Amino acid sequence: MAATATAALQLLCRPSLSAAQLRQVHAHLLTSSTLLLADRFLPNKLLRSLLPAHPLRVLRLFPRLRRILPAFRPNNYTFSFLLKAAADTSASASPGSENQGNVPVSSLHALAVVLAWDAHAYVANGLIHAYASHGLLPSARRLFDDALSSHAADVCSWTSLLTAYARAGQVEQARALFDGMPRRNDVSWSAMLSAYVAAGGFADAVRLFEDMLRSGVRPNRAAVVGVLAACGALGALEQGRWVHARHHSAGDMMMDGVVTTALVDMYAKCGSLDAARQVFAAATPEQRDVFAYTAMISGLSDHGCCREAIDLFAQMQAEGVRPNEVTFICVLTACGRAGLVARAKEIFRSMAAAHGVQPGVEHYGCLVDVFGRAGLLAEALGVVRSMPMRADSYVLGALLNACAAQGDVEVGKQVVEWLAEHELDHSGVHVQLSNMYAGWSNWGEVLKVRRTMEERSVAKVPGCSMVEVDGVACEFVAGDRSHPGIMSTVRDLHGHLRQLVGLESACQRG
C-alpha cells in the first residue's frame, strides 16, 4: 500500500499532469495511505530527491504538495531545496528575468517572510544566491546588506554576491567584495579566479592563484582548472607545467575528465603538443570524455596535425563517445586545413543524420572555409546562399577570405556589402578588402576603402601578443614600447637581419 502511495506521489512530479489527474492522485492518496501522508518529512524528501537533476520539477511539485497536504508547513530545509532549484534554473532564464522558466524567486522570498524563515542563515544565503543567479543584483545586494548589518552574512553570502557581479561583467565590484571578505575559503578564491578568466584577465587570474597558495588555502578543482585556462591563454607553459606538477605530485588534484581537458587544452595552446598527447594517452576511458577528445582534436588541428585530428575523431566514435557541436567545429576546421573536402562534406551530412546534432551557423562557416581553402569559391558561395539561418560575420568572413585567396574582387565586394547590410563590417573586413585590392595593384580602390574606414570611424584594433620570459607572461600590443627587454631583443634581431641582408647583397655582387 505504501509503495502504491509513493508511486502516486511521484506522479505529482510530472509537469504535464492535468487538473483532473491531480485530483485523481489526491483522491488515491487519501484512500490508500493516511499514514504516509502524515509523515511530516515526506515533502522535503520528495523535493530533495529531484535535486540537482530536475530543478523545475521541484518548483512545480511544491505548490501541488501544499494543495494535497494541508498540514505541510515549509521549514528552512524546504526553502533551501526550493531556492537551490530556483538558482539552478538560471541557465535557462534571460538576464534580469526571474520568471523565465516559472522561477518565482520573489514569491519564495515573500513566503519565507510570511513564515518567518527569511532571517535563517540557510534561507538568507539561498535567497541571495537565487536572486544573484538570475542577475537580479539590486535584490541580491539589498539582502546582502541586510545580512551584513545584522551580522548574519557569512562566506557563502559574500561568495554568492561576488559571483553575481562577475557574471554581470562587473569584475572590479567582484574584486572589491573579495578584498572586503572577513574570511575566505577555497570556493571564494576559485570564484574570483574564475571571474578573472571569464573577463579575459588571465594575468590577474595567475597572480590570484599564487596569492591563494601563499595564503595557505588548498586550491579546489575549479581553481586548478581556471588557472590552467589562464596559462593556456597566456601561453605561459612553464607556469602551466608547474601547476600540473605541483598538484599532481601533492595528490591535490584528482584527475577526472574536467582536469584532463584543462591540461590537454593548456599544453596545446602553449605549443607543447607532445605533453598534451601524453596527458590524453595517460587518461582512463572515463576521463577521455567528449570534452577531452574535443580539446585534443582542436590542439592537433591548431598544430597542423589535421589528419591525426580526423583519425582521433574516428577513434572517438569507435569508443562510443558522442561528439557535440564543438567537436564538429574542430574536426571540420581540421578538414579545411588538410584540404579534405569530401571528408568534410561527409562529416557535415552525418551531423544530424547520424549524431542528432543540427548544424549551426558556426558549422556552415566551417564548411564555407573548407571550400574556400580548396579554391571552390562557387561551392562556398552556394553554401552561404542555402543556409537556413542568416549568415554571421564568421561565415561571411570565411567567404571573404576565399575571395581574397582566389583574387575574386567582385564577389569580395558583394560579401562586404552583405556585411555592411548586417552591420558586421568591422575593421578586419575592411582591412581584408583593402589587401585584396592591393594584391591586384588597384590603389584607387585601396584609398576608397581607407577613406570609408575613416568616415565610419572604423579603427583597426592593434594586434596583441604575449611572451613568457623566465616564467612571467608579458603582454604587449603593436607600437607598445613599455617593455625594455622586448625592445632590446627587437633591436638585436633587427641588427642581425641587417647583417644577413648585407652579407647576401655582398655575395650577389661577388
TrEMBL record:
**What GO MF annotations does this protein's record show?**
RNA binding
GO BP term, pick one: RNA modification
Q: Which UniProt keywords apply?
A: Repeat, Transit peptide
**InterPro entries registered for this protein in UniProt:** E_motif, PPR_At4g14850-like_plant, PPR_rpt, TPR-like_helical_dom_sf
Q: Which domain of life is it from?
A: Eukaryota
Please list the residue ranges covered by the PPR repeats.
154-184, 185-219, 289-323, 324-359
Repeat found in the keyword field: yes
Pfam families per record: E_motif (PF20431), PPR (PF01535), PPR_2 (PF13041)
What is the name attached to this protein's record? Pentatricopeptide repeat-containing protein
Give the species.
Dichanthelium oligosanthes
